[in-house]
Task: inverse folding
């Protein structure tokens, strides 16, 4: 990437917190959000940051410019065909990204009935009207994990890190896992049945049910 | 009349909702209007409540507040207040319903205080109304039409309409479109696209334009195409009564 | 209240969104948050609001000053003795209040084992270290509802509204329901067994369980 | 030695955690250090992870990233990144662990880029490190001690230490306390409360002060009370090996 292969990319430097705030700002319909982080960090000199004063206390803060991605691709455990989805386990900036993006593509482990989503509205990621596409893709987060559905494929990461050290290795990796795999079915086939079995998590650990009675 | 005034108002509110729209729903009449619209011409409309609830079908049972369990249960999404307000602030809400203690000729609403017999009477304040009035794509106002509630200029702007007229909202950087309609107990009003002043577009059956003028605190503008408000159809009335079988909200 | 009985209160005018932002600001450790709401509303002239310009776009925004309550009292369905709690159903500004307040008192329908909270970490309201006290109080939200545990007591609200129209009526209400009730047990007794039974919700409507297996 | 250097470093990290503290935990050595502290002297410590996880006991199984299912399952709370960063920003996190590509005499860390053989090499950037360095009550830095990683002044401040010395953090309005300790592969350092400069407080067994000076790019300040780093106790070593039985993180 540093050498601009195949073409240069523009990079905005962020910390984990500032990129989360940039997404949150966009999702809230704001042009920026203030923060106390990164006030002494050299990357906060970029044009997507601005030093500001609190209008009440006068103290120095950092403004983080909103980032509205053109598209967010998010993987969930359950979605209905309208994009209403249940996500559990790791959240990170998933909700912020879903609210911020101009289009949201959901991939899901299970395509479920609308009725199942209504059974636990507190677990809905975002209302379906923010979602533009739903894709049913078992192991759709591979090689990353999905709580309850897939373990992390540590070996796959090790291989990738090894191969992507050289341009040739990376291209070879791309050829095999992207171009020749063709689609998600091809990718899963390439992964092989044995490996997929090994990725399946262990004993079920179900959450305690909650009662929504009225 | 084989329907009540409030049934007529509910039906008028329902007609403002287009299919597929994202609607910030209030309680009482707009809530019923949303249910009627869903039942009839807008099955794909989605309702937002400021407590964080998003519903694609009406509540399981009659409710007094948006946080009553039948409005939460089997909702599409139940997040926080800031989640739904973020949708509003980012321009993703097509319309919202609000009411008020006073409304003026530019559709500004006051729900903070009024004077009665020389004494200042405190009203409930904004609630979510100022947010909807500021930020929704368009606003529908529901009001009881009495002269003391229709001054030429409200004493306090809680929920902004068009302020002092054309250009005022833009000057304030208000992103929402402002009031599109006022549905009152006497008629239905739109707002002039140039002057932004309230214009009578229809009078309810049995109400005269003169009566409406008498109950309005400024010289009323009347649309060239003014007509009688269309009565509820059989289907519309059936839908209203399905969701308010005991007339809790719609008995006069 | 307008007449300063028994003593005057200072009132900060807010809309639902601005008070939520004021709490969110405090909970995030910020002195303010920006918004696009209330820009044309007369209450936004108060000293807890300030007209600001976006440092990136120059557009007019409203700054809302942070509000950190001295104490937040929040009712949940389940809490353990350390203040780790599951809340479901209506959320409103509960999380924002819990993060913003200097002290948090939880009242709960059920006091549960720590292990039950760990069974669904996505449903935890706030980590227990933010909570200063936990109170086991069945029907603790009365006359407001608690999803799965208590219906709204509409009659109680009607009575209160009727009685609180006059100062004498309000004092009579206070005497009965606060001073003479004494504590929560006394209050529940005053409410009566029959009324408590009527407040219990109908058929159980359990959420679909989710699998946290690893 | 009946323990590895990394085991010593893990134990040194664990000793920094006091009982009941709220700790922003990193991966690898600090994660193990947190587990060891919980097991021994800090059973009531709580660990925060920047993906939103809050744990009051170590992960169910060895993990490579904080988002691996064993770190989520049976956590105390699993919210979003902004939830835990809000705790950090509001001053409710007592300490955090960070690492870096380069560190200088005032404890500033660079994880953005270094020059190697005249070529600029990109490093991973901040991640959550700048946030922890800015906002945590105190910071513990974990570093490999090599001269090329210990320049007098880092080329780029990713995670601020004390900047240019006394008063710099206050001038930037940084609310966190800054680095309290640096645990390196050669010794343990504190920071002078006046000048804010790094001071050697202990050298690891088998390492000389001269060797540490050779691997440090500025004239090293040495504490009057400098001594050898205390070796891990039997209990400490047992705890490390309980959580890293295969030595994935602690084999040399």
Result:
């Amino acid at each position: 990437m540093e050498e601009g292969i195949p073409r240069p990319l523009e990079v905005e430097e962020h910390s984990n917190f500032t990129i989360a705030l940039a997404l949150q700002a966009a999702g809230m319909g704001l042009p920026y959000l203030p923060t106390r982080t990164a006030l002494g960090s050299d990357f906060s000199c970029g044009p997507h940051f601005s030093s500001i004063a609190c209008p009440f206390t006068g103290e120095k803060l950092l403004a983080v410019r909103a980032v509205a991605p053109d598209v967010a691709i998010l993987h969930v455990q359950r979605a209905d065909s309208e994009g209403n989805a249940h996500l559990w386990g790791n959240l990170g900036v998933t909700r912020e990204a879903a609210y911020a993006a101009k289009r949201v593509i959901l991939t899901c482990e299970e395509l479920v009935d609308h009725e199942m989503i209504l059974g636990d509205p507190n677990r809905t990621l975002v209302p379906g009207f923010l979602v533009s596409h739903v894709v049913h893709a078992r192991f759709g987060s591979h090689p990353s994990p999905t709580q309850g559905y897939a373990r992390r494929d540590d070996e796959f990461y090790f291989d990738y890190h090894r191969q992507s050290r050289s341009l040739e290795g990376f291209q070879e990796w791309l050829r095999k896992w992207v171009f020749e795999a063709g689609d998600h079915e091809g990718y899963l086939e390439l992964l092989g049945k044995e490996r997929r079995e090994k990725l399946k998590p262990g004993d079920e650990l179900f959450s305690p049910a909650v009662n929504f009675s009225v | 009349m084989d329907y009540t005034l409030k049934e007529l108002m509910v039906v008028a509110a329902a007609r403002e909702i287009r299919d597929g729209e994202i609607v910030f729903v209030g309680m009482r009449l707009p809530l019923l209007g949303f249910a009627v619209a869903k039942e009839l011409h807008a099955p794909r409309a989605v309702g937002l409540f400021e407590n964080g609830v998003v519903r694609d079908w009406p509540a399981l049972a009659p409710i007094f507040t948006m946080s009553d369990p039948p409005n939460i249960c089997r909702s599409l999404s139940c997040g926080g207040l800031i989640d739904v307000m973020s949708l509003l602030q980012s321009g993703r809400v097509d319309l919202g319903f609000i009411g008020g203690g006073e409304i003026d000729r530019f559709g500004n609403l006051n729900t903070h205080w009024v004077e009665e017999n020389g004494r200042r009477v405190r009203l409930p304040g904004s609630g979510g109304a100022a947010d909807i009035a500021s930020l929704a794509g368009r606003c529908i106002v529901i009001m009881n039409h009495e002269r003391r509630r229709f001054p030429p200029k409200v004493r306090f702007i809680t929920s902004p309409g068009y302020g002092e007229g054309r250009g005022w909202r833009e000057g304030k950087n208000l992103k929402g479109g402002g009031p599109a309609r006022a549905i009152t107990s006497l008629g239905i009003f739109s707002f002039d696209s140039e002057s932004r002043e309230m214009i009578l577009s229809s009078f309810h059956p049995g109400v005269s334009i003169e009566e409406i003028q008498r109950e309005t605190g400024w010289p009323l503008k009347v649309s060239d195409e003014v007509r009688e408000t269309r009565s509820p159809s059989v289907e519309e009335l059936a839908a209203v009564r399905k969701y308010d079988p005991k007339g809790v909200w719609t008995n006069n």
Notes: The mean pLDDT of chain A is 96.
